[in-house]
Amino acid sequence: MENFRKVRSEEAPAGGGAEGGPGAGPFADLAPGAVHMRVKEGSKIRNLLAFATASMAQPATRAIVFSGCGRATTKTVTCAEILKRRLAGLHQVTRLRYRSVREVWQSLPPGPTPGQEPGEPAASLSVLKNVPSLAILLSKDALDPYQPGYQPPNSHPAPSSQPTAPTSKRSLGEPAAGEGSAKRSQPEPSATEEDQTA
């Protein structure tokens, strides 16, 4: 593959209908007002969360879905966890599956591939890959707790955003304020030896 470069990557059509249409995807019974956030490898978490937080602040929006595949799965989890901390009381359902992705590779310009005439267009390859995909549903309304992948709302309160008491910078070995400056006195080794010989 060192003589080829990737031209494009596209989702292969699924047998049961393309994802993204109404009733498609891992959550077929979603309300019509649910927001679907497609997380990609190059997506900025700050931008995704700004839009998701603004959408969930509206009373009409009752649910949001974060979905990503391949290298974007970790970013998908990060977005969902941060939103759960910002908005308390969200029910979660996580679904894992695989997506088929078709990659198209084209041969590099210098020299034709073996068996190719000089005037012919560059040879191309088509590779079909199965990549892991993750979809996380966060809902304001209660969900079925017996379905696989369900997580109830966090019972612990979110960490407060108020600043803690200021701490002073100190060098190593110095006691902090309020710790006291008394040190345990230890006899020097030479004094101990003199006491023992006397």
UniProtKB/TrEMBL annotation:
Biased composition (Low complexity): 157-168
InterPro entries, sorted: Alba-like_dom_sf, Alba-like_NAB, DNA/RNA-bd_Alba-like
Pfam family, one: Alba
One GO molecular-function entry: RNA binding
Domain DNA/RNA-binding protein Alba-like per the UniProt entry, residue ranges: 36-99
Gly residues biased stretches: 14-24
Cellular compartment(s): Nucleus, Nucleolus
Compositional bias annotation for Basic and acidic residues: 1-11
Any Gene Ontology biological process: rRNA processing
Keywords: Nucleus, Phosphoprotein, RNA-binding, rRNA processing, tRNA processing
Keyword rRNA processing attached: yes
Segments of this protein annotated with the region Disordered: 1-27, 142-198
Cellular component GO terms, alphabetical: nucleolus; ribonuclease MRP complex
Similarity-based family: Belongs to the histone-like Alba family.
Assembly: Component of nuclear RNase P and RNase MRP ribonucleoproteins. RNase P consists of a catalytic RNA moiety and 10 different protein chains; POP1, POP4, POP5, POP7, RPP14, RPP21, RPP25, RPP30, RPP38 and RPP40. Within the RNase P complex, POP1, POP7 and RPP25 form the 'finger' subcomplex, POP5, RPP14, RPP40 and homodimeric RPP30 form the 'palm' subcomplex, and RPP21, POP4 and RPP38 form the 'wrist' subcomplex. All subunits of the RNase P complex interact with the catalytic RNA. Several subunits of RNase P are also part of the RNase MRP complex.
Protein name, UniProt field: Ribonuclease P protein subunit p25
Lineage: Eukaryota, Metazoa, Chordata, Craniata, Vertebrata
Gene that this polypeptide is encoded by: Rpp25
